[in-house]
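Go through this chain.

——
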Amino acid sequence: MKLLLKIVKYPFQLFWRVILLPWVWLHYRPTRLGIGNVPRKGGVLLLSNHVSYIDSFIIFLTCPRRVRFVVLERYVENRYFGWFLKLFDAIPIRKTRAKEAIQRTAQGLLDGDVVCLFPEGELTRTGVTNEFRKGFELILRKAKCPVVPVYMDGLFNSIFSFERGLYFKKRPHRWTCPLQVAFGEPIPASEATAERVREAVWSASVEAFEHRRELREPIEVSLIRALSKKGKTPLFTEFRGESDQDLKTRQWTRRQTRGTAVALARYWMQRGE
């Protein structure tokens, strides 16, 4: 029966993947790192940082295997988007029934699926990874499958995060929001404690950060590019005067700073320094 349901759902899942994938790639342009670390077969538990309301979509579209997500039951039963979660075999759980939640998640792993959990239990409001809850350790005792740490870098700039203290109701900084999604090396179930997994996620964050697009060009190019934007905006303020009454200020705009930097560079080049 389970095999039949998978066969029936597969065309619909493929359809939505084809619909969502171009939009995600166009807007977020994700760079996938370490996808070879995800085992090709068997149950795998993905443990990722939790930044925005579209984290699940990003992982679903960047992971080389089909992913199931653990979702609160009230979302699965929602009349507006619950059907979508059911279509992708979300695992419904209740906070008041911890034992049942552990059994359902462990069963999905025992069935050989890739299951994703966000061990922080909530969205970060600062962009910094919060403490990991230890509930997944109980799941691993039953499933005994490897853990793959995941880190998504760049999503805090999305309108779906709590950046600027708001969800959704804000304008994006720019049309594109480049992401780096790093999959770390698998951790055996016997070694996957909350502390060990959190450290592994941090290690994946280092790799993700090193592949940021803005770090690929020379620093002088990045500096000139940044100073060229919003040229009339003040960058430095100079204060002069011996007392508060005689205090005078002078502002240097981004355009003036760029001009000074270029003039100094030409001067040094002519002197051969």
Q: What stands out?
A: The chain has a mean pLDDT of 84. Strands lie at 31-33, 44-48, 67-72, 91-93, 114-117, 147-153, 180-183, 234-240, 248-253. The first strand starts at residue 31 and ends at 33. Residues 2-27 form the longest helix (26 residues).
